[in-house]
User: Fold these one by one.
Assistant:
Number 1:
Amino acid sequence: MSVAAASAAVAARFRTGDRVRVRRADVPGHIRTPWYVRGHTGVIERLCGAYPNPEELAYARSGLPAQPLYRVRFVQAQLWPDYAGSPADSIDIEIFQHWLEPA
Amino acid sequence: MNEHPDDHEGHDHAHPHPGVRPDGDDTLNYYQVMEIAVRELLIEKGVLSADAVRREVEKMDARSPAQGARVVARAWSDPAFKAKLLSLGNDALVDLGLERGPFKLVVVENTADVHNVVVCTLCSCYPRWLLGLPPDWYKSRNYRSRAVSEPRNVLREFGLDLRDDTTVRVHDSTADMRYLVLPARPSATERWSEEQLASIVTRDCMIGVAVPKAGSG
């Protein structure tokens, strides 16, 4: 990330271990939040840093201020009703802060 | 072909050759046409040269999973390096003389209880600067959709049968991180050199659809 991007980053709202819900939104454009986690609750695994918003970059805009990006851990059995596997199985996904709300 | 015992010098191919499949590279799709158009424009306007484009393709093709295997073998042999790889992946690459890379590297470690597997459901994100180009199956809709929803079945199809009490962690590479699986070091390799260790670490082991075995080197 460039120095300019770092200085124009949105402050991080969440910390490792926080429970978060992914917004159940249907917005047009270049979205990097997969459908299968929208509306679901997970736990912040780590803060990855702040990155220019890909939804803006896709239209040749700056993507600034940079958005905090997290790895959020979901329990597989909660995402897929017929999931076959250990109840401990998980999936970690990178999600930008503006898609997350406290749960 | 049997009906043409002579070589094809000066042969104009005006007639069909039964049993010979066409090359299949004569029809360009939308994105191929767009790539050619953009590339030709950039060259015409002097932004890039054809040689610069060729050099980049050559450079990408020269990257291979052997680089990743070196990283894994060093992590198995050197606890301090391993700790750095797991916390500051890109810095650890630089220590080995490899490219830092354009993306943040997240290294996930397989243990006796946890197995990690990487997918990019949205496209084909992959640590290309480290492992080279991803395999075709990694980009397929089948792998991208099923690796997240039924990873154990997918792994079984790759020949990897995990115990029921092993925790499977899928990593969906949706944004700015790139992932490398650090496999568990097989038993009976205690006296192996780093070169020997690297020889059993394959591409698939670093994506997480296989595990290294001491007998496969």
Number 2:
Amino acid sequence: MTKWLLVGVIIACTVTADLIQAHGMRKGGARWKVPVSILFLALSFFAFTQLLRVAELSFAVPVTAASLVLETALARPVLKERVGWRRWGGAALAAIGVALLAL
Amino acid sequence: MKARALWHTAGVVLLNAAGNYALTLGMRRAPAAVGPVLALLEPAAMVGVGLLVAWLLLRLRLLQMADLSFVLPLTAIGYLLNAVIGAVLLGEHVTAARWTGALFITGGAALTSSTPHETDTGTAGQRESPGGQGGRS
């Protein structure tokens, strides 16, 4: 249970950091958005170090790829990006991979 | 230039794997009674953090000399390498489902990263999200 809670924190913080950072660099507000994104990245790394205490490395590293899936899904509504089929395909493969890790 | 970029890419992948390995050792060696922050003072964990800082710096240098679309698909192999290190060096029991999952994730990350990264302002082409591999691979 703790394991999945930490995974959730890592994913949420990574996705938030990347989206805020990209938003700041492209649409303005970088002066405060970039520092905030770094704070989220630091939180994500801290949660990752705690995950390593309760989960195996062969699980902990690959499972963080779930952030890629969420970022792809949010890139369109948040960053107004055009997401092509190859990117969706890659995200789908990663999602299947993460689901397999949960088995 | 390409050979240099490849060597740097190999260094990036290896530094990441070594950093995660040392960090794992440190976090596991830290006594359970030690809090989450003090556990990071375990020598192996500190070495791991140091290696991961070096990984970030080398990755930045690599991005100076090579395209992101060249770097990311290759560094995606790190997902798989970490699973290998878990199995071989840490004695973890990696199930068939987990190996398959790591393979899918590596393929997915490589495929996602191989899409065009140019920022366009028109209607043609694609734009990419920041994506990437977080700080883990």
